[in-house]
Structures
1.
Amino acid sequence: MSLGAALGALAGIASTEAAECPRKDALGTSRVLSVDAKTTPRVGLKSFPQTLALADHEVVLTFDDGPNPPTTSKVLAALAQECVRATFFLIGLHASQHPDMVKRIAREGHTIGHHTWSHPFMARIPFDKAKSEIDRGIAAAEMALHGTSTTTPSTPFFRFPYFQGTPAQLDLLQSRGIVVFGADLWASDWNEMTPEQELKLVTERLAASGKGIVLFHDPKARTAAIMPAFLRYLRENGFRVVHVAPAGVPQKNADAR
């Protein structure tokens, strides 16, 4: 199958009936993209040859390393103001410390992915320890969400810390039907900079790429600070937000614009 055909096969869309968004001028969530590990086990051009089947000016918003209540709350408020849904890749340790915040993220319609238990450099540790990091991280998020400790994720999405994984780890995740997310562009918000510098950097990168999976970190205060302005930039420049969800799982409807 060609790459184009494979990406085309990926693009299953959930119900198109729109839910009501309180703000008629909000950015909104334009559609829900169903992602299937069988056809697209790894996505994100920063790490892999393929990415999600996005049209020009479509973006998928992703946040790593949370939850961190003071900043995650601000990010969630900004997303809610614009009726936008995103994906949060949670560190298991943080999820176990803040289960109410995990529940809030899910309750507000966002997708919860997994980001290991303690955020190690996965490529530098033995396979058994890496597997434990994956399993403990999943189990902690599932416990926070559903009160059950299981290593079978209700949302089979995973992102490697530092985007570093070994072929054996990638094979393990693929064998378990877990999609590995990279990114197409990022805000580089792990670097010291002002909120204004971060906003300028990420909007310039998005203008250059025209679409893609965007990586932020919700525990970063500078990212929380710029989120309202970043979403306003998307709205004013004709970008559309796509919400990703696992294949075969009923999803809430996309929000009206």
2.
Amino acid sequence: MSLGAVLAALAGIASTDAAECPRKDALGTFRVLSVDARTTPRVGLKSFPQTLPLADREVVLTFDDGPYPPTTSKVLAALAQECVRATFFLIGLHASQYPDMVKRIAREGHTIGHHTFSHPFMARIPFEKARSEIDRGISAVETALHGVSTTTPSTPFFRFPYFEATQAELDLLQSRGIVVFGADLWASDWNEMTPEQELKLVTERLAASGKGIVLFHDPKARTAAIMPAFLRYLRENGYRIVHIVPSGTSQKNADAR
């Protein structure tokens, strides 16, 4: 397919998403990007040499460590208000505690990835324990989503806690066709700061990089608090949201998620 045809197809997806948004002035979801573990097994410049093929001012929103209903629900409300789709890397333990919230995230069209069962430092534990953390995390999320315990993820996206991994762990996920996500920039919302300080920090970092995979943590109250203002900043400054899905996921299936 020629570059022109690719851009035309992406424009078609963008138009479809925009048409489905009830708010004409909303930020919206510009396009859907399929991510294939065979060609991009690891992405995110904070951890790896390559990242997703994003154009200038294209942004992928990602959230770690949920679900946590008091704050995740506020993040979801902000995303829905702007017709934006994001990716949530869920901790298995939290998914098992709040299965209704897991279902809500999926029902509202977001992508669900995996983030281990209990969020350990994966590079500091034996390989077999790390493998168990991966499998138990996947199983807990799949059980919450579909009522089926399986270690084969319906969405083969994974992010390591603290971005720590051994080569053996990376090789394991690659052998299973699971994409490992780092990030291109982050809000540093694990540090104590005011919502205003977080908003200033992340918008300055995004302005400097111009695009990228952004990392937030939806259980953080300060992140939930700034999300409406952050999305407004994106809209007012010409940024476009890219929604990531696994390779082979059709637009129809992505809409039904």
3.
Amino acid sequence: MESLKECLLARANHGLISLSVQTWAAQNFGLTFPAVEEAILDLNLLPARYQRNQRSLSCGQQLSLFRSKVAVIGCGGLGGYIIEELARLGVGHITIVDPDTYEEHNLNRQLFSKLDNLGQPKVAVAADRIKEINPAVTIVPVQKAFTGKNGKGLIGKVDVVADALDSIPRRLELAEVCEKCNIPLVHGSVGGWYGQVATQFPGEYTLQKIYSRCSGEGGIEKDLGNLSFVVPMIASMEVAEIVKILLMEGSTLGRKMLYLNLLDTEFTEITF
């Protein structure tokens, strides 16, 4: 009987393994879909779903993404887009944390919200969505509110954390937990036509500097709301920062914040 390696090599088409071959291999060798994905990437082959990545990401980098673990704290506007983009890229393990269910006011911008899942837990809906998009991704849905007390248990074993929260006190708690766990944190926030992105590495205390003069629960989003086109733009910039950290490529926003004013098409970089 052919080994998994022999089967994959024999069925590769110009270095690509189709979804049908990957599914067949999982069934015939009694393996999970993620296990077959790792075997494909280990052979320097590429699942065909990623073929449009390959001019920007090598097979080795794709394998690094597959073996990476990211936690997304918040599964609303920013969180939904971050989760989906990470999954489509092939990040192999995503923990999603959010206590809420979908409400009608989420429909204007939250990627996973729709009429027939109003009232359903956001993390459960997200997990089901990702299964339909990329079965090689392991999703860990946690229907809990992130706090300083439970934070270490939720993120202690991941490589990068994405901030998709809408509460300043919670963001600062998240930043503190990431500092204690020695984990990079990518921050994003949206309000009306405006948004900001920053990356905090251990020892930088960037979020504490950003919010040092802020008081109260929420930021400008409480007054200005959230527009549908601003949310995915900030989320995508967060994902770009996450990927650069995971692959140790390019220049990040460490010790910086990028502020976006889409009403006047202005981009301002602030250094801390």
